[in-house]
Design brief:
Helices cover 54% and strands 13% of the residues. The chain is an alpha/beta fold. It has one domain (5-205): P-loop containing nucleotide triphosphate hydrolases (Rossmann fold), CATH 3.40.50.300. The chain is built from eight helices and five strands; from the N terminus they run E-H-E-H-H-E-H-H-E-H-H-E-H. Strands 2-3-1-4-5 form a five-stranded parallel sheet, with helices on both faces.
Length: 208
């Protein structure tokens, strides 16, 4: 029996994560591979309540550190209560965002201390490390076009410079974690991206 793997999807809002996660799940089901899907923040009863607080655009007075700690609290609950048990049950765990988003958004974009965030990420994730991280990369212009008619949440409505730093943060993480990051140009056709993701997954899945 294959061991469980933690597969995370990262990228700017509008990068196509939701679409590609849906495509990936279809392929897992077609190949009779057991999986569980979670989102961040959220994935647990407590985490979903935290998500509401974090994304509520009325909470504009939230401090940067409070934001960081809330994301981390949600992740810790998810990691301990859901992700680790699923991995121990040899399931493929798919996570729509994980701690790399915290490093990109709260570290690079909010400019909080990166060393502290890295330490906090380890604790919050219960020392879990993704086996593969798919980064769907799009330009800020493409992001704007895709979100043009969408009702934006608290973080989505941040200024363009904020999201420029987020994107650069993700690319920096990918550069320094090439063993697990797989960067994909998010403007490619959906089926081409899907095939790239599946190929990379199979490569990892069959060697474990």
């Amino acid at each position: 029996m294959k061991k469980g793997l933690l597969i995370t999807f990262e990228g700017l809002d509008g990068s196509g994560k939701t679409t590609q996660i849906r495509e990936f799940i279809k392929q897992l089901e077609d190949n009779h591979i057991d999986y569980q899907l979670f989102r961040e923040p959220g994935g647990t009863k407590i985490g979903e309540k935290i998500r509401e607080i974090l994304l509520d655009k009325n909470n504009i007075e939230m401090s940067e550190v409070a934001e960081l700690l809330l994301y981390s609290a949600s992740r810790n609950q998810l990691s301990i209560k859901k992700i680790r048990p699923a991995l121990m049950d040899n399931k493929i765990v798919i996570c729509d965002r994980f701690y790399d988003s915290t490093t990109a958004y709260q570290g690079h974009a909010r400019k909080l201390d990166l060393e502290f965030i890295q330490s906090l990420n380890r604790v919050a994730a219960d020392n879990l490390i993704p086996d593969i991280t798919f980064l769907l990369d799009i330009s800020l212009e493409e992001r704007k076009n895709r979100l043009d008619n969408k009702k934006l949440d608290r973080l989505e409505q941040e200024a363009g410079e904020f999201h420029r730093r987020v994107r650069q943060g993700f690319l920096n993480l990918a550069k320094h974690n090439q063993d697990r990051f797989f960067v994909i140009k998010g403007t490619q056709p959906i089926d081409l991206i899907r095939d790239q993701i599946w190929s990379k997954f199979q490569e990892k899945y069959t060697t474990e």
